[in-house]
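sry for the spam today, last one i promise. struct tokens for design, 394 residues
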């Protein structure tokens, strides 16, 4: 199965059949809290890892009815699509990407439409595929009235690295954290030299070898690339490519892709932390922060904002307010002064924002649009927005 490939060069992940089925079968009760006979719905594309693992193999090996859904959370026909499917099919456990909920929230910001559907059978919502910002989680909790569990994993692993074992005993939810490492994963935070970081400090997330059953043994026809991509940076560890920290209770926080940690005048800052602040603004439906080159400070953060439908404020007003917000919540050290409003963000078809491509456009570097991009025309919209700020010069 090929990774969604935000790098533009997808990698073919090999899956060991027996280990994969053992691991997936275990997760259905212990993580997703369903028993054989329950209806399980993963609203994803069957071509992505969530589709392979949780539309197809896991529910069926465990004896669950699985929902195969074609469409989007809005526009097919409207923002009630998810609620209708859950009500009509008695879905017990629902799994999708935060992007889907941001789209629904953008069109129905108060969540009024859910009141027309019987959601009483639903036990929980599970989010994965990208960072789940606290604002989206809180909105989903309030509107749906069920626990919302963020969890974190990758195409390479095939199932949860860090999650909340709700089917064994639900742990307290800390919004912003996918909770703790699941059995088989020894997750550690490392500095550039491969040494463990202190509690609460940002570093590279790595998993001590060996990896558990079901995770990738190699890449298809590319064993050298497998070793170089995952096992070389930190000998004895699998390199996830994500950056984050672990708190005093052992809860993991995924803050950004390692490439998205930016260096502003010697300070290592997480773009994810800034996105969290931007997303908390009531008019912001979705956002992304990238680091652009700056002669004086090395890099500067630049924010892209998508506003809620029906927002009556001007783009200039919202931009001014989010700049103040970042200064208040993160501090002047973030040097956050650049932001622009766009209609949409460039994403892969699985909902991942193409931040590395946006950085290349901003810095005027050559780039290759990933084969998995949902709509290449969005890149031109991003370029125009950046040019108004003096970036993306040809």
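last one done:
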């Amino acid at each position: 199965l090929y990774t969604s490939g935000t790098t533009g060069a997808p990698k073919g992940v090999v899956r060991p059949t027996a280990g994969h089925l053992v691991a997936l079968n275990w997760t259905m009760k212990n993580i997703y809290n369903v028993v054989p006979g329950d209806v399980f719905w993963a609203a994803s594309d069957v071509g992505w890892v969530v589709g392979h693992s949780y539309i197809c193999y896991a529910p069926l090996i465990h004896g669950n009815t699985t929902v195969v859904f074609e469409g989007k959370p809005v526009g097919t026909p409207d923002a009630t699509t998810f609620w209708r499917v859950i009500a009509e099919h008695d879905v017990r456990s629902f799994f999708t990407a935060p992007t889907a909920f941001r789209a629904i929230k953008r069109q129905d910001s108060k969540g009024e439409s859910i009141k027309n559907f019987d959601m009483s059978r639903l036990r929980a919502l599970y989010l994965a595929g990208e960072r789940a910002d606290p604002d989206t989680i809180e909105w989903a909790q309030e509107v749906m009235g069920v626990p919302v569990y963020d969890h974190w994993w990758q195409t390479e692993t095939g199932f949860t690295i860090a999650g909340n074992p709700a089917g064994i005993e639900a742990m307290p939810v800390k919004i912003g954290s996918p909770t703790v490492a699941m059995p088989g994963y020894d997750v550690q935070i490392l500095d550039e030299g491969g040494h463990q970081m202190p509690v609460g400090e940002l570093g590279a997330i790595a998993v001590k070898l060996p990896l558990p059953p079901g995770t990738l043994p190699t890449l298809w026809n590319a064993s050298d690339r497998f070793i170089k991509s995952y096992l070389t940076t930190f000998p004895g560890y699998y390199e996830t490519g994500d950056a984050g920290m672990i708190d005093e209770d052992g809860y993991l926080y995924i803050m950004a892709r390692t490439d998205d940690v930016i260096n502003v005048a010697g300070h290592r800052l997480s773009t994810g932390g800034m996105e969290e602040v931007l997303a908390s603004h009531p008019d912001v439906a979705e956002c992304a922060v990238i680091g652009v080159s700056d002669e004086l400070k090395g890099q500067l953060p630049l924010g892209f904002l998508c506003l809620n439908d029906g927002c009556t404020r001007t783009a200039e007003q919202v931009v001014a307010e989010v700049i103040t917000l970042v200064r208040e919540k993160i501090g002047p050290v973030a040097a956050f002064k650049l932001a622009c409003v766009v209609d949409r963000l460039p994403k892969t078809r699985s909902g991942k924002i193409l931040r590395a491509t946006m950085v290349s456009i901003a810095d005027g570097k050559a780039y290759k649009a990933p084969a998995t991009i949902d709509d290449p025309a969005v890149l031109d919209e991003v370029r125009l927005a950046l040019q108004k700020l003096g970036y993306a010069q040809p």
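Residues 315-329 form the longest helix (15 residues). ok im logging off now
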